[in-house]
Amino acid sequence: MHPKFILFSYPGTPLVGTFIYGLVGQHKELIPGYGKVHGGGWYLLDSDARTITLYGSSGDYGPANLAFLNRIPSSLRGYRFFYSPTWPGTGAGAGYGAGAGLNSGSCAGAGAGAGLNSGSCAGAGAGAGFGAGPSALANELPLDDVEWF
After folding, report:
1. CA 42 – CA 145 distance, rounded (Å)
2. Is the separation of the CB atoms in 14 and 38 below 8 Å?
């Protein structure tokens, strides 16, 4: 199971994309019924920093068309949304924060640790692990006109 998301429009509202996310094996498992998928990707949720970084592309539906990020679950109200075309912190030696690690434990930095789901994690540049704070390569998404449901 992996943290994935899609942007989905229901038949009655074809121009309104709903953000649907969860831990799934494939993006198609997120589809709630008949409608149109406007791409998808992966997400990194940091509850402490109250950020969610969307990144990558869906193998099933392609990259997310962020123009359809119109409806977001109210459970994510107060979170800042970021988008990065690649895994946060990759490239140009930019680390993805320092601290708590992706799922648990503490981050040890570049080349150390046992993986992303264990007590420590391998960093992606400059000795920093995947912890709090958005990547230097991520852009914050404006949420001014978003409907919370």
Report:
1. 23
2. no
What is the number of other CB atoms lying within 10 angstroms of the CB of residue 15?
A: 9
Q: How many CA atoms lie within 13 A of 29 on its CB side?
A: 11
For residue 139, the one-letter residue type is N
- The reported pTM is 0.68
- Given this model, what pLDDT does residue 90 score? 55
Say yes or no to pLDDT of 22 above 60. Answer: yes
Residues 6+ apart with CB under 8 A from 79: 45, 50, 51, 52
Cα 142–Cα 125–Cα 101 angle in degrees, nearest 5: 70
The backbone torsions φ and ψ at residue 143, rounded to the nearest 5 degrees and listed phi first, read -120, 25
* Cβ–Cβ under 8 Å, residues 24 and 43: no
- At position 125, the amino acid (one-letter code) is G
Instruction: Report the C-alpha gap between 149 and 140 in whole angstroms.
Output: 21
Q: Which region among 3-7, 52-56, 121-125 has the lowest average model confidence (pLDDT)? A: 121-125
H helices of 21-145, where? none
CA contacts within 13 A on the Cβ side of 103: 12
Distance of CA 116 to the CA centre of its chain: 15
**So what's the pLDDT on residue 30?**
96
